[in-house]
Amino acid sequence: MQVGYSSPQAESFRSASSTGYIGNAEHQLRATVEDDTLRLASCFIRHVLYFESPQDSSNMSNVVEFRDTKLRSFATPQLLEQAINATDDGGLCLRSKNDTNDFELKDNRVAILEAKRKFQWLEDGKPTISDECLGQMTCEALQSRLINPTSPESVIVIHATQHYLCFLQFDISNQYIREFDTDSLSLSIPVVITPWYDFSNESNKKQVVLNLCALMRWGGGAGGERQCDVSLALISCI
């Protein structure tokens, strides 16, 4: 399995960041339990989902909500020696109003959340996503496509670390899914990442809000069908 990645600003994947210099010693001191990171990210995301456009209306037929439940999934490709085991930390789900005006679950993986207690690597004061962490998120994105092959080709992962957050877009084509677990697979999985956003920075928080609002529009589009290009969700890439 090959993963090709790039930042939206034509820099290397490892240097994409809106943060200033992060000292390693200070970062280690701030490291707490992973649940603290998850709690901060989930509270912020919930606030945006509740009060920002397009979900600030009382008349909604499709609603994107925060999913607390951690989803665990397995796949056992014939060509691999062991199963692919992926467990996320929650995410965004879609509920649609039915004939009885109840909102029923339609899509459990509009976006996937992956939280870490600290950065795995700091390079010249800039946060780096390690190969191990990237591999974990790739497996989670791939699993979401294998479970539902008719789902959109792009999978969004929201990655949170302490008070930092970024968005990753994994483009897993239908052809990749068809060729997966065959000897003929030669495709890679392109990945685009936004800069890291710092919740202690006001302009960074606004960028997170804009991205989440775009995800709401994408995930809860007309009839719950995602018609638009998911790249529009990563508005900071433009």
Automatic annotation (TrEMBL):
It comes from the Eukaryota. This is Uncharacterized protein.
